[in-house]
Design brief:
The complex is a heterodimer of chains A (286) and B (371). By secondary structure, chain A is mainly α. Chain A is 73% helix and 1% strand. In chain A, a hairpin with a 2-residue loop joins strand 1 and strand 2. In chain A, helix 3 packs across helix 12 and helix 4 packs antiparallel against helix 11. Chain B has a six-stranded mixed sheet with strand order 6-7-8-3-9-10, with helices on both faces. A five-stranded antiparallel sheet of chain B has the order 13-12-11-15-21. A five-stranded antiparallel sheet of chain B has the order 16-20-17-18-19, with no helix packed on it. Classes of the chains: A mainly alpha (286), B alpha+beta (371).
């Protein structure tokens, strides 16, 4: 590290960081502030930065009993349902991806199978394709199969988002484990399945925690799949859209919904930061 | 009892042949070293015995049982890898216990055996550490411990010392040799270091280009190399090779001329009666002595251009008869850095001769075999 930077350089560098922070944080701060304001404060011009915060918007969001009555009108929302939907779908998608993707990633890393690279690239290809590509044909398919607006159907279709990432990340983590270690386990009397169970999986654990967090966030943020293939089982991202009301615009309630939607990823990122970084940079096991 | 028998073992990746015609008998309790330059197939051969590489052709038997198709896990072997290959997520104790757990052994027996192995290798104080908290030498010990704890039939070592520094390498070399004496198991050891091979082996197998070049005791390989390749590979510094011509022969001797046109008789049996062939004369640097004027010695003039003092020995680098030569000086106090011409002698009995194909001609006065 360079400790001999001049004072001016340091000031300029810090100023640049501050600018970055301001640009990135501004919308977030704005939304959080908006969520804590009354409708009248939101509409005030110039915008007020000093106001009496209220939790009323959050009450409206989750208060199905009073039918979302506000001081300036009634909005019918039940935001708890979509939050639960999102948790179920995103969590389910990650679990299914781990069950299916980790073995696939392992095989792609370690075994000689025909057309290995083509298979791997095909799986990755789903990450390049726009989600709408699969959504439109799936819409009619899901309706005739009875999968439309079901958790199973949603978790299944979310594999488009989560599975390729899990397969590819697992593959690269496995490639980072020295092959010697697996061979040593084989010589020590472990059959292939036990080698994976006792040696490979424990070594993959930190990487997989990071990868799971990462794909959970991807699943959480997905919008198009839920919009087209669900209604009562719609995730938060879709529910947010439904807050757009043709009549009065309940801006502070929408902002509160956004805050709720953001809070889950933020908590996960804060708790799992160490693992998330590991998941992205997981390397030398040695 | 653990005998390993290789019959016509072959290994190929597609059309690329790595090993062919490998026939080898390893007796119970033998310490066998596979040695050869890189790419000779020695590691591949070891890995085939271990079950880590498929056998393309031939038969591999361990204790008279054909194991070609048997999983590595079921061959009951122990192996030490060059990289140690310790399980990074397990403590030393659990690393040692792993083979026993796989064998579904009882808990208290596992504990006893781990303790015994740790005591044998003096790593008891390290049992609760993780591999990353150990030094290279300690990791090496743990790797050996993990291999011996199950008391396998055969131990395989794949260049286990090449990641250690010189001093530690010598220590571990001695320790592995001692361990072999203590346990009495069959051990197969791969190295590219001929000193390791010479010091540890009961039997050395020299591999070259995927074929066995020669099998024998270290003593035999040193004194009766089968080929120019073996002669050059075993022994340090390397044997000197000088071109010469076959002039004549009788029953027990061959007459050669070097480029100085002087003819000399060597106690070596030739394979041709015609004479006139271009041969190669081989002289080990350590076989040079001060000339005594006695018959039966070859006097060679060396133009020395560099002198290397090792303390215990002094080596002279120079040219003789138009070729590069290395010779151990019979005189320890050879003046350092002094270039000049010296006359050194070699007993005719110490000379080696190789035919144009590189095969050795039989030395009749070579030191007898020990075994």
């Amino acid at each position: 590290m360079d400790f001999t930077r001049s004072l001016t350089t340091r000031i300029v560098l810090n100023a640049m960081v501050l600018i970055c922070v301001a640009v990135l944080a501004f919308p977030l701060v704005w939304i959080v502030m908006m969520a804590l304001k009354q409708q009248s404060d939101v509409m005030a011009w110039p915008p007020s930065f000093v106001f009496t915060p209220t939790m009323d918007n959050f009450r409206v969001l989750f208060d199905a009993a009073q039918a979302g009555a506000t001081s300036y009108g009634t909005i019918k929302v039940d935001f708890l349902k979509p939050v639960i939907n999102s948790v179920v779908i995103a969590l389910g998608a990650v679990v299914v991806s781990l069950i299916a993707g980790v073995p696939a990633g392992y095989v792609l890393a370690r075994r000689d199978i025909p057309y290995k690279e083509d298979i791997a690239f095909f799986i990755l290809g789903f990450r390049f394709a726009p989600v709408l590509l699969v959504v439109i044909p799936l819409f009619s398919l899901f309706q005739s199969l009875g999968l439309y607006d079901t958790y199973i159907g949603m978790i299944w279709v979310y594999q488009v988002v989560t599975l390729p990432m899990i397969v590819w990340l697992t593959r690269s983590y496995v490639e980072d484990i020295p092959k010697d270690i697996e061979e040593a386990a084989a010589i020590d009397g472990a059959k292939p399945f036990r080698v994976v169970l006792h040696i490979v999986l424990p070594l993959l654990k930190p990487g997989l925690i990071g990868a799971s967090l990462l794909v959970f966030l991807l699943a959480w943020h997905n919008f198009a799949l839920g919009l087209m293939l669900s209604s009562t089982k719609a995730p938060v991202t879709v529910a947010l859209l439904k807050l757009l009301n043709p009549g009065i615009q309940f801006y502070p309630v929408m902002a509160a919904g956004l805050v709720v939607t953001m809070i889950v990823p933020v908590i996960l990122i804060v708790i799992g930061q160490r693992h998330l970084e590991r998941g992205l940079t997981f390397g030398a096991v040695k | 009892m653990a005998e390993v028998r290789l019959e016509g073992i072959r290994k190929a990746y597609g059309n690329l042949e790595i090993l062919r015609d490998i026939d080898l008998d390893i007796r119970h309790g033998e310490f066998v070293v596979f040695v050869g330059p890189s790419g000779s197939g020695k590691s591949t051969l070891l890995r085939m015995i271990g079950g880590l590489e498929k056998i393309t052709g031939g038969t591999l038997r361990i204790d008279d049982k054909v194991v070609n198709k048997i999983d590595a896990a079921d061959r009951n072997l122990g192996m030490v890898f060059q990289s140690y290959a310790l399980y990074p997520h397990l403590s030393v104790r659990n690393n040692l216990a792993f083979p026993l757990k796989m064998a579904k052994m009882k808990k208290d027996e596992i504990a006893d055996r781990v303790q015994a192995a740790a005591a044998l290798l003096q790593i008891e104080h390290l049992l609760d550490r993780k591999p990353r908290q150990l030094s290279g030498g300690q990791r090496q010990r743990v790797a050996i411990g993990r291999a011996i704890v199950r008391e396998p039939k055969v131990f395989l070592f794949d260049e286990p010392l090449s990641n250690l520094d010189t001093e530690l390498r010598v220590q571990m070399r001695v320790q592995i040799a001692k361990l072999h004496k203590q346990l009495g198991n069959t051990m197969i050891y791969v190295t590219h270091d001929q000193v390791e091979a010479m010091t540890m082996a009961d039997k050395i197998v020299i591999l070259k280009d995927g074929r066995i070049e020669q099998v024998g005791s270290p003593h035999d390989l040193y004194h009766r190399p089968a080929s120019k390749f073996v002669a050059g590979f075993i022994g340090s510094p390397r044997m000197n090779f000088l071109p010469c011509k076959e002039k004549g022969s009788d029953q027990a001797r061959t007459e050669i001329t070097l480029s100085d046109k002087m003819s000399r008789w060597l106690p070596i049996q030739t394979t041709s009666s015609k004479g006139g062939r271009a041969l190669t004369l081989g002289i080990r640097p350590d076989d040079f002595v001060a000339p005594t004027g006695m018959p039966g010695e070859l006097v060679i003039e060396i133009d020395v251009d560099f002198v290397e003092h090792l303390g215990s020995a002094t080596y002279l680098y120079g040219t003789a008869l138009g070729d590069h030569v290395v010779a151990r000086s019979p005189n320890h106090h050879f003046p350092a850095g002094n270039a000049g011409r010296v006359s050194l002698a070699v007993s005719a009995a110490d000379c080696h001769l190789f035919d144009p194909e590189g095969k050795a001609l039989t030395r009749l006065e070579a030191p007898g075999s020990w075994n």
